[in-house]
């Protein structure tokens, strides 16, 4: 708008100067023609009879003035400097030979009449209507076309200049260290190229730091398993007692944390291998049956038939984590599938537990965050279950959404895109 407004003002200034020049030229031409024409015309009409004056008067008419045989119409004294200037010019052109009576008969548009008496006693009126040259009918159309062209050029220029900025903003919004994104194209104005270069370098550094952090986490978790196993073996060889049982319990909790730490480190690369076409109902039915065989209160509710291209091991791990979380905190889990209007598939895992406070819905998706303030692992867990599910959902181009249910409980929804299969393989 700033660019277009500037161009519009410059265009308006050009037209204002043009019309001002047209006004000055038209006024000068009118005065020049009037000065040269009035003496000849009045002298001609002086030598004609009254009847012939009526016939000749229209032939002497010009665009801004005309000769009318007869007296002037009633009016008021001259009201403008231009009218007085024209009257003085007529008087000079006639060498002050006639007594002029000038009056204004209209102000909008301006029109005034100068009356004089010819030698035979008949009145003659010179009616003057000052005006600039009329505007051609095609001029407004041309002006509108020019303004439209200016607006189009301004829009194209701004779009070309800001397109890299839009790409940069989109890239910042999509920035996710868990996913690999192509670098931004480094093109456009110098400032935009610098910003894109800096963003690509930052994205690469963040990815490197995250990979390094997860590698350290995986290495530490892996290396801890061996001494933990040795300690368990030594404790099991000791005499039975309360202290021995407590130590074994602590080691089991530590071993669980180590296993989930390794799982979280691996979850950033969970979507490996080719995608296959599968029947979602069949996969969920298999998962639910495994839990039921183990005596867990897990049921398969309303399940819309859906077929999608995904990675079964990763999807299975996500659903299992959500079911484990529902069983742990809600006592039971119900699994269902919905087909959304936007084409995506929603896998719901519901429970009737205490739910999650609204202000902590996003926080529980972060690693090692637990709602249990005492950080008791028997009640608060390790804080990695939902984080792993959230991380794995991102590798499937999906989304994990948590919401409290009316009547109590939590609904964990896995939103998955339905895309064409990239391979001819399929699984049921």
TrEMBL record:
<keyword id="KW-0547">Nucleotide-binding</keyword>
<dbReference type="GO" id="GO:0005886">
    <property type="term" value="C:plasma membrane"/>
</dbReference>
<dbReference type="Pfam" id="PF02518">
    <property type="entry name" value="HATPase_c"/>
</dbReference>
<keyword id="KW-0472">Membrane</keyword>
<keyword id="KW-0418">Kinase</keyword>
<feature type="domain" description="HAMP">
    <location>
        <begin position="159"/>
        <end position="211"/>
    </location>
</feature>
<dbReference type="InterPro" id="IPR005467">
    <property type="entry name" value="His_kinase_dom"/>
</dbReference>
<dbReference type="InterPro" id="IPR036097">
    <property type="entry name" value="HisK_dim/P_sf"/>
</dbReference>
<dbReference type="InterPro" id="IPR003660">
    <property type="entry name" value="HAMP_dom"/>
</dbReference>
<dbReference type="InterPro" id="IPR003594">
    <property type="entry name" value="HATPase_dom"/>
</dbReference>
<keyword id="KW-0597">Phosphoprotein</keyword>
<keyword id="KW-0902">Two-component regulatory system</keyword>
<keyword id="KW-1133">Transmembrane helix</keyword>
<dbReference type="InterPro" id="IPR036890">
    <property type="entry name" value="HATPase_C_sf"/>
</dbReference>
<dbReference type="InterPro" id="IPR050980">
    <property type="entry name" value="2C_sensor_his_kinase"/>
</dbReference>
<keyword id="KW-0067">ATP-binding</keyword>
<dbReference type="InterPro" id="IPR003661">
    <property type="entry name" value="HisK_dim/P_dom"/>
</dbReference>
<keyword id="KW-0997">Cell inner membrane</keyword>
<protein>
    <recommendedName>
        <fullName>histidine kinase</fullName>
        <ecNumber>2.7.13.3</ecNumber>
    </recommendedName>
</protein>
<dbReference type="GO" id="GO:0000155">
    <property type="term" value="F:phosphorelay sensor kinase activity"/>
</dbReference>
<dbReference type="Pfam" id="PF00672">
    <property type="entry name" value="HAMP"/>
</dbReference>
<keyword id="KW-1003">Cell membrane</keyword>
<keyword id="KW-0812">Transmembrane</keyword>
<keyword id="KW-0808">Transferase</keyword>
<dbReference type="GO" id="GO:0005524">
    <property type="term" value="F:ATP binding"/>
</dbReference>
<dbReference type="InterPro" id="IPR004358">
    <property type="entry name" value="Sig_transdc_His_kin-like_C"/>
</dbReference>
<feature type="domain" description="Histidine kinase">
    <location>
        <begin position="219"/>
        <end position="420"/>
    </location>
</feature>
<dbReference type="Pfam" id="PF00512">
    <property type="entry name" value="HisKA"/>
</dbReference>
């Amino acid at each position: 708008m700033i660019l277009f407004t500037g161009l519009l003002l410059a265009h308006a200034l050009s037209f204002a100067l043009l019309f001002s020049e047209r006004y000055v030229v038209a006024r000068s031409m009118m005065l020049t023609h009037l000065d040269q024409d009035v003496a000849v015309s009045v002298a001609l009409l002086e030598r004609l009879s009254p009847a012939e004056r009526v016939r000749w008067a229209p032939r002497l008419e010009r665009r801004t003035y005309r000769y009318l045989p007869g007296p002037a119409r009633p009016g008021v004294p001259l009201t403008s400097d231009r009218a007085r200037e024209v009257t003085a010019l007529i008087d000079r052109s006639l060498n002050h030979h006639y007594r002029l009576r000038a009056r204004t008969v209209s102000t909008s548009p301006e029109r005034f009449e100068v009356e004089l008496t010819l030698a035979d006693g008949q009145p003659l009126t010179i009616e003057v209507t000052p005006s600039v040259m009329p505007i051609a009918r095609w001029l407004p159309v041309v002006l509108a076309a020019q303004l439209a062209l200016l607006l189009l050029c301004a829009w194209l220029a701004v779009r070309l200049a800001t397109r890299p900025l839009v790409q940069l903003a989109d890239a910042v919004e999509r920035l996710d260290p868990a996913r690999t994104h192509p670098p931004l194209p480094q093109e456009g104005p110098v400032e935009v190229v610098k910003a894109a270069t800096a963003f690509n370098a930052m994205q690469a550094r963040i990815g490197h730091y995250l990979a390094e952090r997860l590698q350290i986490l995986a290495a530490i978790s892996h290396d801890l398993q061996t001494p933990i196993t040795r300690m368990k073996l030594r404790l099991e060889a000791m005499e039975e007692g309360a202290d021995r049982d407590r130590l074994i319990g602590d080691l089991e909790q530590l071993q669980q944390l180590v296993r989930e730490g390794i799982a979280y480190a691996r979850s950033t690369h969970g979507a490996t291998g080719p995608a296959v076409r599968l029947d979602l109902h069949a996969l969920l039915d298999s998962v639910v049956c495994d839990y039921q065989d183990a005596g867990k209160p897990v049921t398969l509710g309303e399940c819309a038939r859906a077929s999608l291209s995904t990675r079964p091991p990763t999807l299975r791990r996500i659903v299992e984590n959500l079911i484990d979380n529902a069983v742990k905190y809600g006592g039971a889990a119900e699994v269902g599938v919905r087909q959304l209007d936007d084409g995506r598939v929603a896998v719901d895992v519901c429970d009737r537990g205490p739910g999650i406070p609204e202000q902590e819905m996003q926080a529980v998706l972060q690693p090692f965050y637990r709602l249990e303030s005492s950080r008791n692992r028997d009640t608060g867990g390790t804080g990695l279950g939902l984080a792993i599910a959230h991380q794995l959902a991102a590798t499937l181009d999906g989304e994990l959404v948590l919401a409290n249910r009316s009547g109590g409980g939590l609904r964990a929804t896995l939103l998955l895109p339905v895309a064409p299969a990239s391979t001819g393989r399929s699984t049921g």
